[in-house]
Design brief:
8-stranded antiparallel sheet; elongated
Length: 198
């Protein structure tokens, strides 16, 4: 009896390892496709649709804020650099496709098994940067997403409010915003690293 259980456990572990390896291979290939300009399409937003999307009840959205001891111009410049969020473990970061940072500029965000392609839709220097997703490496999960960075300067200090909103392809009717309090500490920790670039 014990031998049968041990053999079953070993078979399950081996099968799980093989399934994980196959999944990793596919995820890595799909990631490379996004970085090459391909991947799976998501519904991009126009600038005038972003605020409504961020407020939509069917969207998971989380906002994290961080105050930096620098003027808005310096925080803005740090947001414009390639390699944003690369201070996080296993994150390669944000890379702009060319030298442009204005409305219409394309950028990618990637990690070893995940990548997205984004387009800048709002670019108000020292005040607001908004990007919308155009492609993603993982099919079926996401219908659309956006990131919104808003800077407010006061007394030589700048508060950055970073909102990330995602609409899933399925389950959009669920109260996904209830998960925001659990994601907010991670998002707050993620933008803290921006201070190393100021």
């Amino acid at each position: 009896m014990i031998e049968t259980l041990v053999v079953a456990a070993v078979v399950l572990l081996v099968a799980g390892g093989i399934a994980a390896a196959i999944t990793a291979v596919f995820l890595h290939r799909w990631r490379r496709a996004v970085l090459a300009g391909g991947g799976f399409a998501v519904h991009p937003l126009a600038a005038e649709q972003v605020d409504e999307f961020l407020a939509d009840r069917g969207v998971f959205a989380v906002t994290a804020t961080r105050e930096f001891t620098a003027p808005a111009a310096k925080v803005w410049d740090a947001l414009q650099l390639d390699g944003g969020f690369s201070w996080l473990p296993l994150i390669t970061g944000i890379r702009y496709r060319d030298g442009s940072r204005s409305v219409g500029a394309m950028r990618s965000f990637d990690a070893p098994l995940f990548a997205v392609q984004e387009r800048v839709v709002t670019h108000t220097p020292h005040t607001r940067l908004t990007v919308t997703g155009t492609r993603i490496s993982i099919p079926v999960l996401v219908s659309g997403f956006a990131q919104d960075y808003r800077l407010t300067e006061h007394d030589g200090r700048t508060t950055l409010a970073w909102t990330i909103a995602v609409r899933p392809r399925v389950g959009g009717f669920l109260p996904l915003r209830w998960g925001a309090p659990f994601a907010r500490p991670f998002a707050t920790w993620a933008i803290k690293g921006l201070g190393t670039r100021i």
